[in-house]
């Protein structure tokens, strides 16, 4: 047999190894395998473990005692749980303001004017700093003795307000602090999306007489749906798992009025309430179900829109 014939037989499909025959299909999965493994170990498995632990009375170290759904029954009658749930709903509603705010800032920054790079840097800055730093900055900002907030409202004749010490204002004050970096994140998403807007559609709409709000609502916003979807999902998850700002700014106070579910879960499982891992896991399960509901809704909406095209 000639050398050419040997080479042809070596590369014939039936003589190649299984990997060589399926290389195009298998190689992407090999690259994804480490990420999938980490996702399973650190996300999926802990979710199921939380469901399991919520059915036990356990301090995290000693033996576990199976109690069924007693942790969930206790949640039903727990006023601190309802306070946390109410605050989470307030976070959810007001935190969504970051999306339109981010869009309008992105529209302003998506221009070629003098100094636009400096403006972009200033608006981008909150996104790159730690949430702990944001919490400390706004704690000083709200301070009733030397804070800038009380100085500003003093100019219009309003008295000093202890925002973080008043149960009426504390949640809104923390949400305002959280909106600062979240708006910057949404702005970045929309700036990226605006770069992909089809200029031919913009020009065609201008020829048809569209401008201003009509141009924005009927031409630009529909092309920003992928960015809007990501902004909604990330903002909802951020609102529901808000923890660090509350821990830094109020530690759940005053009188527990700034608690949210994630912080209350930490308190009952790992803090002063006595290492009640089962009860904390029950709160985590409730929080997970709320998140799952919103994310599933947006995924379904996006899937429905894609099928309608």
Automatic annotation (TrEMBL):
<protein>
    <submittedName>
        <fullName>Sugar ABC transporter permease</fullName>
    </submittedName>
</protein>
<keyword id="KW-0812">Transmembrane</keyword>
<keyword id="KW-0813">Transport</keyword>
<feature type="transmembrane region" description="Helical">
    <location>
        <begin position="122"/>
        <end position="142"/>
    </location>
</feature>
<keyword id="KW-1003">Cell membrane</keyword>
<dbReference type="InterPro" id="IPR000515">
    <property type="entry name" value="MetI-like"/>
</dbReference>
<keyword id="KW-1133">Transmembrane helix</keyword>
<comment type="similarity">
    <text>Belongs to the binding-protein-dependent transport system permease family.</text>
</comment>
<feature type="transmembrane region" description="Helical">
    <location>
        <begin position="169"/>
        <end position="194"/>
    </location>
</feature>
<feature type="transmembrane region" description="Helical">
    <location>
        <begin position="279"/>
        <end position="300"/>
    </location>
</feature>
<dbReference type="InterPro" id="IPR051393">
    <property type="entry name" value="ABC_transporter_permease"/>
</dbReference>
<feature type="domain" description="ABC transmembrane type-1">
    <location>
        <begin position="84"/>
        <end position="300"/>
    </location>
</feature>
<dbReference type="InterPro" id="IPR035906">
    <property type="entry name" value="MetI-like_sf"/>
</dbReference>
<feature type="transmembrane region" description="Helical">
    <location>
        <begin position="215"/>
        <end position="240"/>
    </location>
</feature>
<feature type="transmembrane region" description="Helical">
    <location>
        <begin position="26"/>
        <end position="48"/>
    </location>
</feature>
<dbReference type="Pfam" id="PF00528">
    <property type="entry name" value="BPD_transp_1"/>
</dbReference>
<feature type="transmembrane region" description="Helical">
    <location>
        <begin position="89"/>
        <end position="110"/>
    </location>
</feature>
<keyword id="KW-0472">Membrane</keyword>
